[in-house]
Specification:
Elements (H helix, E strand, L loop, with lengths): L1 H15 L12 H13 L4 H4 L17 H7 L3 H15 L7 E11 L9 E4 L4 E11 L7 E6 L4 H14 L4 E4 L7 H9 L2 E4 L16 H10 L3 H10 L1 H11 L15 H33 L1
Parallel strand pairs: 1-5, 5-6
Antiparallel strand pairs: 1-3, 2-3, 3-4
Helix pairs in contact: 1-2, 1-5, 1-11, 2-5, 2-11, 5-11, 6-7
Length: 298
Amino acid sequence: MERELWSELYSELLRFDRCVGVKGEYFSDGAIAATQLWAVVHDRPTSWACRRENWSSVEPPFDLPSQPTMSRRLRTAGVAALLDAVEGCYRDDGDGGWVRLLDGKPLPVGGHSTDRDCDWGRGVRGDARGYKLHAVWGDAPVPLAWEVAPMSRAEPTVARRMVRRLGERGAAGYLLADSGYDSNPLHDLAASHGMQLVAPRKRPGTAWGHRRHSPARRRSAQLTEGGGAFGAALLRERDRVERRLGNLCCFGGGLQPLPAWVRRRWRVRAWVQAKLLINAARIARNRRRRREKGRRRK
């Protein structure tokens, strides 16, 4: 399956970088990205993909760069723009709908790690050290907006940057999240971009007190604390984000705990983006197969 998913992504890379398959001393941005994806889909270090003997199941259609070249080029704007373009293609596949899902996934590292970019924060069952993937999901195979931040970064703070990016694309509708995102500034920002954030209060049913609260936050409380059938349906809809994050992790090549060679924030972001693209290729392939099966039945 790893070879199929890599081939799917390689075909997408070819749409934006025609030089990816040209052999020679020059390594195109596409060749760098394809080599990185080959390593990540097999859960191996980048240096592993730089050796031809590790491409036994497929003949690489380009000369393989060295590990120092990979380390240098993966941080360039050209490679980042190319991967973002491929991600955008998958994002356009199902970016409709009025309900979007906001959540975070902890990416812990060892407590004695010397990675100076990560920090201590709230993990799954207590404090943990590492990073966190924050993502807004819609119907597309990839998140509509996402970001990797240290574990200590507050969820509403990171969410504000993603909400601004969604607002620039004209997003509107309902944004469902858990109680960790219940923040007056985040409610106000979402409302200013035409979105209603729906996040349960940390202490539902209690009095509001004397401080000023966002009208959008009060509307969220109405929906989550007695909003009738519509509010209950929104809360049930939020369960989809758990399935999206679960599906991101529960297949060969999916997003597992960060391996020992993925440290520093730029490496973590590159690793996570590759995992998101691999998962998107898997979802797109499965959707295509279901459509083909449906046409054959007709």
